[in-house]
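Schema walk-through. Below, the input block comes first and the output block second. Nothing else is stored per chain. Lengths vary across the set, and this one has 499 residues.
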Amino acid sequence: MKNKISTIISNKAKVNWKTIKSNGFPILLALILSVILSCTSLIIVNYYTIKTLSALRAFINGESQYSKAQKDGSRNLLLYLNQHNEHFYTFYSENIKINSRESLALNGLFKSRPQWQLMDNFITGNNNIEDADDMNWLLKNFSEVSFFKKCIFYWRDANNIIRIMDVRATGIRLKILKGTYTSYQAIADSEDINNWDNALTKIESGFSDTLENASRSIRQKLLICDFTMILLIVGFTGAYSAITVKRLFFSAKALATKNQYLIDTNAELDRFVYSASHDLRAPITSLKGLVQIIKEEDDLQQIRYYLEYMDRSLDQQDDFIREIINYSRNKRTNLTLEQLDLSKLIDSTINQHYYMSNLNEIKFFKDLSVETIYSDPLRLKIILNNLVSNAIKFSDPLKFEQKISIYCKVADQMLKIQVEDNGIGIQPHQKDKIFDMFYVTLHENRGSGLGLYITKETVSKLGGRIEVSSEVGEGSCFTLYIPVAMKLKQNEALSGLSA
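--- output ---
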């Protein structure tokens, strides 16, 4: 029995541990996923922000190359106008080629040219090969963003001026080569080239300022984003740590409670096994002694007396074994709800005690305001059987009328049962001990000391409580308060009591 009950307790502990492990698991999983998602987002955001800033830096650097080439080209074209030296025109052509390559890269985007061709135009425009990839990526993905749209407008305006200037430079060269270019034309062309140069300077400055403002804005947004993400990661990590620590605390507390429960249970089992084995062996030893006496006894009257004593001893032994069975059932059987007829259940309980010698002298009274309930039939039988049995055992034969009254009513989902007798009552110093295991009185009808202990344990199993009031010589009244389900569909509400 000890091994069985220990196994039951162990299994119950495992179930509770699983409950502790599963408690709050979705929240922890959500926090872990949130941390992972936040970290991933932080990495992705920083990667693309750095890529964007790198591309902007490359475009600003490209603008400086573009501006330098344009200014050198304008300067060499002006020298060519005045000196007619082909070296200056060659220098002009090399400079203007850088500007035209940048123009080809912009035009290639809107004409859906291959990526390698766009990158080649950037590289030919004096841009670093590593920057060319970022510039190409920014151009293709940010062409509709407001700040880059503005830059593209600047870029187009500058390219248009470069084209016009290049067309004029080609015409000037033809005239110089033919010898038809006059000084008046040179003055007019020089003025136009200076005007274009000034216009390009403003456009290039606007282009550069726009990109620099965009870079600063992106850096600020990145700082805000990084700060927010870090706060989220710290928050999620802190929440995860707090919940984990809390779970560990409650797990340790629950484990300590379980350990203490097991220690108390083992101590109770040790006491139970010791006392039960003693109480089981004592009647057997007594019966063996009586058998030996009977073997040597010739007086039939005396033999009949011994047999009656043996019969009472066997009845007590039978009661004791039944109480042990009830104790075991209450420990290992889960709660079950059934529709019960209280009147029939009480009548059946009374009928089970007809073998008791003084039952015929006792009158039973029932007062039931409710007859049908949903509860655990096994445990209600155990409770009623023990209380009725006790009331019969401790009835007062000196009273003219011996009676036992049973009252039942339901209020606020609680079944109230009262078993009241006018027996010998309970001594005041015994009231706090009668529910202890193996506690027995010195009365001649002393029992096993398990009946009221089992009753209290069974009531607790049902989630209820038991109270007792008694006066010596007046009688005793045991009152039970047990949760009941008024409808069968409320099974779940009561089944939780078995946990």
